[in-house]
Amino acid sequence: MEYSEILRTRRSIRSYEERPVPVELLREMIRESTLAPSSGNNQPWRLVVITNGEMMRRISDESKKNLIARLEADPGDYIVRYESALRNREYNVFYNAPALVIVAGSRDYRNLLVDCALFASYFMNAAAARGLGTCWVNLGSDVRDPGLRAELGLSDDDRIVAPIIIGYPRAIPAAPIRREPDIIRIIE
């Protein structure tokens, strides 16, 4: 697939075939994604790869619980638009995808968000090039339970930046309309 085609066809996918993604394929895409640029070539990302549906459900439930508590503490929080879904016991923030890759790193690393976002972008493009679909599901990043974090291999120092679901898409939606770029000035 040509790079420009990857950019045009990569979409956020929320409906997947009930077909596992081989762990070796996930490893291959992760290895490619380490080519992403990072500040000072620090490569701060730490990854958790999950193909266990029960574990993904536990992470979803933990995140939902914490997001609802956040919303109850601040009813004006932007996540109010997700309130009905978060309160639905059946709702899985990971859309029952067959795999989840959590991109995390040290909270104290100054460029963590940018560097991990670049890694995540490379990973999502690597998936699209293989006919796989992904979705960065930020609703799944609020994991506070120490026991669950330990099961995931995350220390207290780790911040989850990008929980990315991945699988074989049932369909690829059309691209939403994009606005023209807001170029402030071109100086020649």
Structure description:
- This protein has a four-stranded antiparallel sheet with strand order 1-2-4-3.
- It has a single domain (3-167), classed as NADH Oxidase (3-Layer(aba) Sandwich).
- It is α+β, with helices and mostly antiparallel strands.
- It starts with a helix and ends in a 21-residue tail after the last strand.
- 37% of the residues lie in helices and 14% in strands.
- The radius of gyration is 17 Å and the shape is globular.
- The protein contains six helices and four strands, in the order H-H-E-H-H-E-H-E-H-E.
Keyphrases for this structure?
single chain, 188 residues, alpha+beta, NADH Oxidase, four-stranded antiparallel β-sheet, 4 strands, 37% helix, 14% strand, globular
